[in-house]
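Dear Dr. H.,

I hope your travels went smoothly. While you were away I took the liberty of generating a structure for the chain from your last submission, since the lab meeting agenda had it listed for discussion. I wanted you to have the full record in hand beforehand rather than looking at slides cold. The sequence, exactly as received, is reproduced here:
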Amino acid sequence: MTYDELVSHHMRTLGCTKEEAIQLIQDDADVDKGLPKPWDLTKEQMKNSRKLANATTRKTSGTVKRTKKENPVKQEIIALLAEALNGAEVADEVKISNAERVVDFIGSDGVKYSVTLTAHRK
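The corresponding predicted structure, in token form, is as follows:
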């Protein structure tokens, strides 16, 4: 697009005069070059605008201490697994690492094993 076409385009689309369109094109070129313009923010205004742009409206609270609900069904299943492994000939040194999750034992071959119980969500 030539310069005259650009001026007429701005005049037609923005409804401005020829002088205003020319000034607009010159201002755009100056902004593209990074030259300061009278409407630019001062350093203090720029600092305040950055501070306000990063401001949050949500109030943050402290850390929430959550307590885990005990699951008696899982505890019973782990106890049954440990009891069954104690009675088996293939397992030695059966130990419940986590009452609701893990049973560790050493197999008759000397290898350490663990059984992990997972309850899936509904």
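Two observations you may find useful: The helical segments are 3-14, 18-33, 43-53, 72-87. The two ends are 63 Å apart (CA to CA).

With kind regards,
E. W.
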